[in-house]
Amino acid sequence: MMDYVTYNTLGVSQDTQLRMLKILKAVIQGGGRQIFDIGHKIMKKRWQRLKVALSTSSRFSLQYVPPRFCTFFQQIREASPGNSP
Known about the structure:
Elements: H1 2-8, H2 14-29, H3 33-55, E1 68-70, E2 75-77
Antiparallel strand pairs: 1-2
């Protein structure tokens, strides 16, 4: 694991690593749930914009994936790029 962390952080400034560590500590203190909610909202908005852009195209299309139950959020959610079947 130490080798992975060492090689994974090559080329990343120490200042950036420390800043990210502070962000992760704040996320953990808050329970960690908010970062997933925010990430989902941002990706959902981007996915909707992409669907609108592709709906006007005659060359590209997206397959329909029906909404499914999300075990993390405990509710039915529409499909997004990260949770395709």
